[in-house]
Amino acid sequence: MTALSDALDKARAEGRAALIGYLPVGFPSVDTSIDAMRALVDGGVDVVEVGVPYSDPVMDGPTIQAAAEPAVRAGVCIADALRAVRAVAQAGAAAVIMSYWNPIDRYGVERFAADLREAAGSGAITPDLIPDEAGAWLAAADAQALDRIFLVAPSSSDARIAAAAAASRGFVYAASTMGVTGARTSLGGAAEALVNRVRAVAPDAPVCVGLGVSNGEQAADVGAFADGVIVGSALVRCLLDSPDAAGVAAVRHLSAELSAGVRRS
Amino acid sequence: MTPDSAMPDATGHFGQFGGRFVPEALIAAIDELTAAFHATQRDPEFRAELQRLLRDYTGRPSPLTDVPKFGEHAGGARVLLKREDLNHTGSHKINNVLGQALLTQRIGKKRVIAETGAGQHGVATATAAALMGLECMVYMGEEDTRRQALNVVRMQLLGATVVPVRTGSRTLKDAINEAMRDWVTNVETTNYVFGTVAGPHPFPLMVREYQRVIGDEAREQVLERVGRLPDAVAACVGGGSNAIGIFTAFVADPGVRLVGFEAGGEGLDSGRHAATITGGAPGVLHGARSYLLQDEHGQTIESHSISAGLDYPGVGPEHSYLHDLGRAEYRAITDAQAMEAFLLLCRTEGIIPAIESAHALAGALDLGRELGPDGLILVNLSGRGDKDVETASTYFGLAQP
Prior knowledge:
The complex is a heterodimer. Chain A has helices spanning 3-13, 30-43, 62-73, 78-91, 101-107, 109-118, 135-143, 158-167, 190-201, 216-223, 233-241, 245-264, and strands at 18-24, 47-51, 94-98, 123-125, 147-149, 151-152, 172-175, 207-210, 228-231. By secondary structure, chain A is of the alpha/beta class. Chain A has a domain at 16-146 and 211-264: Alpha-Beta Barrel (TIM Barrel). In chain A, strands 5-4-3-2-1-9-8-7-6 form a nine-stranded parallel beta sheet. By secondary structure, chain B is an alpha/beta fold. Chain B folds into two domains: 13-54 and 93-207, Rossmann fold; 59-90 and 212-396, Rossmann fold (3-Layer(aba) Sandwich), CATH 3.40.50. In chain B, a hairpin with a 2-residue loop joins strand 1 and strand 2 (17-18).
């Protein structure tokens, strides 16, 4: 069992959805981003997704791109993400890495898995790696007892949902809408329908919903039907608006609001 | 070594290269496109319609032109140009786009998006969209909208919306990122008309099959005119669609050297180039495993070339495969070499080539000197240079009265 699975189990035992917060390491600096991740934990998130900034983030909208670009220019890399993972684990939350595939590929997939485990990380989310292409990662993650989280989308066929759920450990990441990351005012019904479709083919797999959740009310809504609620861009926005201690405080404040949200549903 | 003609496999792998490294949200559309592509390849009606368009609309077959005065500078070798510059819209890009636009109609989508570097693929897509009544949006790096302003106007005249991309290096790589984001968001209504043999499966396969008409025609034309196969086939390589288009017909001819010329920019040592195979390493970019320009952390390195169409840090997976197999060679041509060959073709033969194609011409000069007067070189003149007159004017300091 990873710390991630423990965190999801604990939330379920409390009769609520888990709260998962995303921040990219290295924006506005590595140290401040790690402070912000600790603030997420203070605010009540159960799991921190440590983002690895990447030069070509095709799944990300303008908010996360705006944070990733300067971090990439500053040379932020997997080693920085592993430092953040260690800090999150020490702060008492589960940590997973969220990375496009090429930085991991370049780092070396086996070395990545070994170093992630050594940093007390639980696993990784790979938004542009589908299970079909993930042979090396599945083997490396198994060897280190790490979770690997694959995505499903409203457009996924039932067969693909089944394959993604079978390949995933930890949870299945359900993308709430078709599109890139970013806060949305309305999530529509696609997310709940997708969660139900995952449960139909994989009744035991925890399903967490990401893309678009930005406030406590939405967190409560999504938490009513999902095992976990994933928030990214809205947290990143706090640091873009105020790339300093005030931004870190805003992250703490928003994560507390989101945390209250998942406890309300 | 002869490549396996069964490549790619069912999920788009050329040996260790290719594949589908894309968000899950796109897989359904990619699966649909793959199935429709295979079905239409076997559909005589579809094939006939594409043939008709290539003949009556594009003007195929494109001629093969002997360029003896240019050849004098290439060690006296006989140089033949495959004249893709004479196609409607001015480059080879239209071959692929007509196929993909017909395919878009077949799957019932009404909107197409495209990325473009030099603007040639964008113009071709806008053209096909106008012809077939499709809504068209073209993503183009802001830097490229400046260097290829003429093509922006052409696309607008054809009714397309051109979106300047202001992220990253503001060139082709970032235009592809933005087009992918559009596609993920609007995939239900929108087909992505991809311009080169890169990207996720089925694009490298599909674009190859739509472009192979170049080599299929040229092989027949050379045999008819000269009575033998060429010693070498030369093409420029950015993503690599014109090169794959002309190479494919010759891949099974072991005596024919296949040589791709990448953009060496200011020289490989300068770090400012786009020579992906010559100067890069395998990794994953834009949906496929292939050679790419990347740093030690796996971040894409921004490319540089005087030619917007070659200014791309990736390359099609089949080129990576042919390179590792040793079936094709890849060499770098600097901006200066390309511009010299550009001017040489203008002055010796009265043909203004695209700066992209001038890289292949510069390569042919070297190949000719290696082969000598008995050598026979087929060069893919992939596009015409009208779009490049401003770049050339600045480079050569022209237009001063």
